[in-house]
Amino acid sequence: MAEAIATNMGRAASAARSPLRRRSPFQRKAFPYLLVAPAVIYLLGITFYPGLYAIYQSLFRVRFNSWTFIGLDNYTKLLSDHEFWASLWNTFIMGSGALLLEFVIALTLAALAYRDPWIKSWRILFLLPMLFMPSAVSFIWKLAFNDGRVVSDLLMRIGMIDRPLDFLGNIWLARLSLIITDVWQWTPFLFIIFVAALQGQDAEIEEAARLDGARWSQIFWNVSLPMLRPIIAVALVLRGIDIVTMFTSIFIITGGTPGGATETMSYFIYRTGFKRFDFGYASAASVLLLALTVIIAQSFVKRFFRSGRD
Questions:
Q1: How many Å apart are CA 307 and CA 230, to the nearest integer?
Q2: pLDDT digit string (tens) for 152-166?
């Protein structure tokens, strides 16, 4: 028994004296990539492959199982399709309007509230509109604007209008209803980003400007806002990409009416692919939309980051 204990102690001592096996420089460099490899493979599988498949499909005239190679004819047809350009224009009008309102409201609220301790403790309350399903929000606002005429009734009670408004029969009212729906649900997304960015800035810089006699508005416009530009760029790009793919509210509230005035690119692609069953043409529209989105987003971000460095 004593001999066995002595043998085990000798082995433990020799193991303690032996140096640990160290990884090679290549293994140390490759280890982080191995950790993120499963996530990268998954993302490539759900994004890269469908994108390549859409590009490939856009070169064909696809009618269910009938594939006819036509080269770039779908793209040339798109460039002369007035419905495509109309949907692109509608996307720009409604998207820019919604994004501008969300940016102004979110930045104003963030500037007024980011030093408030109550805001720091209860940020989650400002995210509540984002927690609702987009379909539920769209049905609620459809009821308010059209089916239940809640908005018209309120405006009539305060004397602003004499008769109910037809939100779905007027081009600009239909667009306005979609913009309000989007602004109500997604302004908190920008608000919480701006509040977090402002709270993360060095408070000593603001205190130094305040000691020099600067007013609150001067501190915000000349100190806080310039440092916030890169964050604003990223937030607007993320929100802008999401607005470009706006579909649920249009499908539920307006259906592209009146006369296609609220038909965005996403709804145009849906109507082309799943109502006309022209999948190759819809794929070509998707590829063009992706290319335009990437070019605009890249230019926007580069400009903001360059101005931030300057």
A1: 9
A2: 899 899 988 888 888
Q: Which residue has the tokens 């000691």?
A: 211
Mean pLDDT of 257-271: 92
List the structure tokens of 133: 């399903």
- Packing angle between helix 225-244 and helix 279-309, nearest 10 degrees? 180
pLDDT, mean over the chain: 85
- Of 126 and 309, which is predicted with more confidence? 126
Question: Terminus-to-terminus CA distance in the chain, angstroms?
Answer: 77
State the Cα–Cα distance between residues 193 and 171, nearest whole angstrom: 33
Q: What is the pTM of this model?
A: 0.82
Scanning the structure block, which residue is given the tokens 């009416």?
257
Cβ–Cβ < 8 Å for 102, 186: yes
Among 209, 235, 204, which residue's Cα sits nearest to residue 223? 209
Task: Identify whether the C-beta of residue 228 lies closer than 8 Å to the C-beta of residue 220.
Answer: no
Sorted by sequence, the CB contacts under 8 Å of residue 91 that are 6+ apart come out as: 244, 246, 264, 265, 266
**Which residues contact residue 154 at a Cβ distance below 8 angstroms, ignoring those fewer than 6 apart?**
none
Q: What angle do CA 129, 296, 235 make, to 5 degrees?
A: 30
How far is 272 from 285, CA to CA, in rounded Å?
9
Size (the chain), residues: 310
Q: To 5 degrees, how large is the angle CA 107–CA 111–CA 115?
A: 140
- For residues 118 and 116, what is the distance between their CA atoms, to the nearest angstrom? 5
Contact present, 175 and 236 (Cβ < 8 Å): no
Closest CA to 188 of 99, 122, 128: 128
Alpha carbon distance 105, 191 (integer Å): 8
Provide the 3-class DSSP secondary structure of residue 277. Answer: coil
Contact between 284 and 74 (Cβ < 8 Å): yes
